[in-house]
Amino acid sequence: MIPEWKETTVDGPRTRRWSLDRAQCAELATHRIAWLGLDTVAAPYRRVRLAPSGSFLLACLEGEGRIFLEGRWQVVRPGQLCLAPPRILNAFHAVARRQWTFAWIRYEEPLAVQPLVHSRSPLRVAEGAQEIGRVVSGLKAEWEGVRNAAMIHHWISLLHGLNLRVAQPARAKSRLSSLWERVSLAIAEGWKLGSLAAEAGVSAEHLRRMCRRELGRTPMAQVAYMRVQRAQELLHGTDDKLDAIAPQVGYHTADVFIRAFTRSVGLSPSQYRERGREARSSAGT
Q1: Domains in the chain: ranges and CATH
Q2: Which end of the chain is more exposed for a tag (fewer CB within 10 A), N or C?
Q3: Would you say 208 and 218 are in contact if contact means Cβ atoms under 8 Å apart?
Q4: Is residue 283 packed enough to be buried (19+ CB in 10 Å), middle (13-18) or exposed (0-12)?
């Protein structure tokens, strides 16, 4: 059953938060960073963001929490890094009797720009969180201390560079990269694990291992993710009806497409399209 989501902000009495946004620090806008922070939280801490306008990264430093990724709740533990593309559901919460410390970064990315996190990005990485945590902590110390403009610039540039390395790994010539390029050009095809493996020239099991290692998900989950990304583009860029969009992104019926899209994004395709129209209207475009 697909849950009914709504925008949620709950902190609770044991939550300690530090954050910095671009209204306070104009240097963040140089890299399209809207907001970042370092939080230590406990239940009932909870966040739900239905369709944020930019990429999101969460680096778990201590304890554990829960994050909603690819249609299900998953545990996030120290050292793990979670990513989410723009305009897709973000939801995470603390669990009872467990303190959770994490760094986080939200970007602001208009539709016309290539987002930091996109269809070739991993959504879960087993390493890199501590490095991002140290940089956010360094920025916090500088901001609360001397606040030297040059040092602020260097901390933010380093942070963005680490984010870029994780979200857009340099594997342009890898076998997987070539595979996903071909899938992207034929996203409407009825891809199965066997046909993906044949296209990549490896066994199904080897493809599964490669995909888990590079993207943190199965090959078929990657196809589903790419289909949702393509559907988002069509919902924003065309007035096509849902029963016309569904076959363009590999779904036989609009009903199946609606269920898959809602499970991943947290909004139905119609709700998603309406939010996009509202955002463009408020921006004067």
Answers
A1: 8-167 (2.60.120.280), 175-283 (1.10.10.60)
A2: N
A3: yes
A4: exposed
